[in-house]
Design brief:
The complex is a heterodimer.
Chain A: H1 13-25, H2 53-79, E1 90-92, E2 95-98, E3 105-108, H3 109-118, E4 135-137, E5 142-144, E6 152-160, E7 167-176, H4 184-203, E8 234-239, H5 265-276, H6 293-307
Parallel strand pairs in A: 7-8
Antiparallel strand pairs in A: 1-2, 2-3, 4-5, 6-7
Helix pairs in contact in A: 1-2, 4-5
Chain B: H1 3-13, E1 20-27, E2 30-37, H2 42-49, E3 68-71, E4 74-77, E5 90-92, H3 94-97, H4 105-112, H5 122-137, H6 156-163, H7 173-187
Parallel strand pairs in B: 1-5
Antiparallel strand pairs in B: 1-2, 3-4, 3-5
Helix pairs in contact in B: 4-7
The chains are: A alpha+beta, B alpha+beta.
């Protein structure tokens, strides 16, 4: 059972935390349970924000699980008949394994923890993690605000109707860097979702205020978030492989929540490029964000009027 | 005149009774007879009076699709209809589709394809997705149906068009678009 200070909001954090504990203790994922995130268990949590949920809570879970593992090793080395070789002791496939070759001993996880319990060994542990190296001097404007950076590249193809300003995203290819992925299925989902949100931010999601300062695009009827038709017709998302995080993050992974959001810029850039084609790419079209069909049409008109 | 007096006055001026009606709904196979304020939406009836909170109240004006349920076999935004308009109607909510132990094929397909993230829109997506396959099977054309005389094929374009009333803020569309054809294939 693991409890951590991060909020699961569909980003797969609980799954990743369970994976960390399972990996540290050599257990199946099914053997690890999570209990609800509550401040009566982990008070004063950091917000699950800035894409740091897995980085922070995963490392804290790893810290706790590895302390527990070391304690079980110490216990096992001294307790079991004949003594177990402390060096090289490991937890794998639901077993504690000690020694090699003929002297190898295997003790099932259930037996290990039950014996430890009966011998009054604490089976709970707390872990903590603070991102190292980061600091920032606001007065001087100097420091290192981030432990590492995540990278990504995206290419978009769009076709647009220069008379109505309507457009379609025909194809998008994304390559995103999550270091060593903690869970490729979750990470690809995060990249896809982040991209869609970023695309919506720059294309259809328009905040409009009236003369009195009242927000008038205040619901999904007027504030258009992407829907099925907006998903690129061809949408390929891949994770960059073979590039572990150069910093000692959680298993050399990288944050994945927000970074791919920025990749949505390629759709806006492709729209500008399509508009530029109206003047044989000799103009840099003015296209405010979000590039709604209305703005695309006005931009097309402006180029045409200039060309005439 | 102080504040409490004016509040009292307002209360005196308010109508003594709100108009109420008795309606019988068959929800997930169980008959319920309820006496409701006439203004109660079907969604609020399900959520607040029958404790069926699987149907979600996203936007409350028929734009997001999170409240999609089936009424007499057709999908409907439960937030845009009043319960008293549905005397005797058969309503199926996500709770009537499947259970954790016996998932509806569409629920299973969503799980198989990782077709949700936060899950808020998911119940509406699943109810809509089932209806989409039924509508195509019944040869009901959509805006993107090219040939109105031929049997409608289950294409990506058809599914996108017919699902466009169900928003997913997490942007999990790509995987939902994998889940729906999986069910169609299983049924074929």
């Amino acid at each position: 059972m693991i409890n951590h200070g991060g909020t699961e909001m569909g980003q797969g954090l609980h799954t990743k935390i369970c994976q960390v504990v399972a990996r540290e203790l050599g257990l199946d994922l099914d053997s690890v349970r999570i209990s609800a995130t509550r401040t009566d268990k982990v008070p004063n949590t950091s917000p699950t924000a800035a894409s740091s949920g897995a980085d922070l809570n995963g490392m804290a879970a790893r810290d706790a699980a590895s302390k527990l593992r070391e304690r079980l090793f110490e216990f096992a080395a001294g307790h079991f008949e004949g003594g177990l070789d402390r060096e090289g002791m490991r937890l794998e496939h639901g077993m504690l394994i000690a020694g090699i070759g003929e002297s190898e001993r295997r003790i099932p996880w259930g037996e290990l923890v039950q014996t430890a319990y009966l011998n009054r060994v604490s089976l709970s542990e707390k872990g903590f993690y603070a991102t190292p190296l980061i600091h920032y001097n606001r007065a001087k404007g100097q420091g290192r605000p981030f432990y590492y950076y995540a990278f990504g590249a995206a290419v978009a193809e769009v076709s647009l109707d220069t008379l109505s300003g309507e457009y379609l995203v025909d194809r998008v290819d994304v390559l995103h860097d999550v270091g060593n992925s903690l869970n490729p299925a979750i990470d690809i989902g995060q990249v896809e979702g982040g991209f869609i949100q970023g695309m919506g931010w720059l294309t259809s999601e328009e905040l409009k205020w009236n003369a009195k300062g009242v927000l008038v695009s205040d619901g999904p009827a007027t504030y258009k978030t992407p829907t099925y038709g907006d998903l690129p017709k061809v949408f390929n998302v891949d994770l960059l492989e073979g590039h572990p995080n150069s910093m000692a993050s959680l298993y050399r992974s990288k944050a994945v929540g927000e970074p791919p959001f920025m990749l949505g810029m390629c759709v806006w850039s492709a729209l500008r490029d399509a508009l530029a084609s109206l003047a044989d790419y000799r103009v840099s079209p003015h296209l405010d964000t979000p590039a709604t069909p209305e703005r695309v049409m006005l931009a097309a008109n402006a180029i045409r009027n200039k060309a005439l | 005149m102080n504040a409490s007096n004016s509040a009292e006055q307002r209360r005196d001026q308010a109508p003594q009774e709100v108009p109420r009606s008795t309606v019988t709904l068959v929800v997930n196979g169980t008959q319920h007879t309820l006496t409701l304020d006439n203004r109660t939406t079907l969604l609020d009836t399900l959520r607040e009076h029958l404790a069926l909170t699987g149907s979600k109240k996203g936007c409350e004006h028929g734009q997001c699709g999170a409240c999609t349920v089936s009424v007499n076999g057709e999908r409907i935004n439960a937030c845009l209809t009043l319960a008293v308009m549905h005397e005797g109607d058969e309503i199926t909510t996500i709770e009537g589709l499947g259970t954790v132990d016996h998932l509806d094929p569409m629920q299973q397909a969503f799980v198989d394809n990782d077709a949700f993230q936060c899950g808020y829109c998911t119940t509406g997506q699943i109810c809509s997705a089932n209806a989409v396959l039924q509508e195509i099977a019944a040869n009901i054309p959509s805006h993107v149906t090219a040939d109105l005389t031929a049997p409608i094929e289950i294409t990506d374009a058809e599914i996108r068009e017919r699902m466009s009333g169900n928003l997913c803020r997490c942007g999990a569309y790509a995987n939902i678009l994998k889940a729906i054809p999986q069910v169609a294939k299983e049924r074929a």
